[in-house]
Amino acid sequence: MFNLSLNVRPPLTAHHYMGYLFTSESVSEGHPDKVADQISDAILDAYLKKDPESRVAVETMVTTNLVVLAGEVRATEYASASVNHEAIARRVIRDIGYTYHELQFHWKTVVVIDHVHGQSLDIAQGVDAGDTKAQGAGDQGMMFGFACTEVDRVAGIEGRVLMPMPLYYAHRLVEELARIRKSDNSCMPYLRPDSKSQVTVKYDKRGAPVAIDTVVLSTQHAPDVDQKQIREDVEHRLIPKVFPATLMPRELLVNPTGRFVTGGPHGDTGLTGRKIIVDTYGGRGAHGGGAFSGKDPSKVDRSAAYALRHVAKNVVAAGLADKVEIQAAYAIGCDRPVSLVVDSANTARRGFTDADLHRIVESAFDLTPAGIACRLRLKRPIYGRTATYGHFGRSSFPWEQLDGTEAILQAANGLLA
């Protein structure tokens, strides 16, 4: 059985009484940190495709005309011999759109230095399952899952997104900008791969979103385009495709510095795992101690965070709360969480407490590393798509499926009975 942790809430602050603004950001696939994430996850996918039991922890650094790969891998001899790290890095850089020599980071000419080596046997003996031992967690740490109803209720989104509104729209802005750059380039031919967005949402005193206050959009561009043209295109081509008519932003800031020609890895060094808040909940929900990209599912930094998102989303979708944050903690080599806590921020359905939700989660879901990997089918090459535009809130991922609501409701009814 899991330990039942006490649910201690902080005291109310001023914004609980008078309404407030909250901001989240996102970055495009051409942002240097995201270039690094995509390379790391592409290497992970290549190993999992050849050997689903691969153990991978790959880090990437990118800067002017340079890619440095480091980390640890344990895989079959066949997989190790057939995965070409350098070729994968070049393909990712090309697919992102670094095909302009003037950007000083070109997929053909970039130097790739590979320092990936074998995984420590000390880790393997603690993590691997045996005849009398279940698979243990690949590291210690605490992980969080979060879900809320604000996007679905206010924006009328089809399906169940269950994500914070600021981050949801920040992702959609840079995602749509990339789609225009790659598929509809005739209308904004000056776009280059690097871009950033920021969305500020106004909330009422109950914490419900009521309006989009400010949008900031910075996009790398060719040197000969006028900034007025960029703003007009963003205002008339991009914004209407992302925001519904009832949620048009009050203020729009485009390239606030006045120029964004130097960008990408030449403008700023990129590292794997440096955009963890962009990857998760934009600051609305807590984040654990570890990043995701480049890590196989034995690393609970990644797999448990996915599992807890899956649990939180299904709890909210089942109607047991409007907002849920779940934390679990693991010890390296141990197969069960050392703690679990559920916090509904006082939104639990009438008749249920957070302690009740804890018991329901404990009853309905297997949160061991092996159980998570099996339930979500995580030993597949599915991670390249996670490295851009958020790991949560897109229905194509297994941890976003609402396939746990029936088990949750059965556990809830059992508790009531």
Structure description:
This protein is an alpha+beta fold. 35% of the residues lie in helices and 21% in strands. The chain has 14 helices and eleven strands. The chain has helices at 15-18, 32-50, 77-82, 85-96, 121-127, 150-155, 165-183, 227-242, 264-267, 276-279, 300-317, 354-364, 369-376, 405-416, and strands spanning 20-27, 55-63, 66-74, 111-118, 141-148, 191-203, 209-221, 251-254, 270-271, 323-330, 339-343. It has a four-stranded mixed β-sheet. Helix 2 (32-50) crosses helix 4 and helix 7 packs across helix 8 (227-242). The chain starts with 14 loop residues before the first helix and ends with a helix. Residues 1-10 have low confidence and may be disordered.
Structural class: alpha+beta
Main sheet: strand order: 1-6-7-8
Query: N-to-C SSE series?
Result: HEHEEHHEHEHHEEHEHEHHEEHHH
Output mean pLDDT: 91
Give the terminus-to-terminus CA distance: 21 Å
Give the overall shape, derived from the CA principal axes.
flat
Biggest sheet: strands, sense, closure? 4 strands, mixed
Gyration radius from CA atoms, angstroms:
22 Å
The total of helices stands at: 14
Percent of residues in beta strands? 15-25%
Report the helical percentage.
25-40%
Q: Are there runs of 5+ residues with pLDDT below 50, and where?
A: 1-10
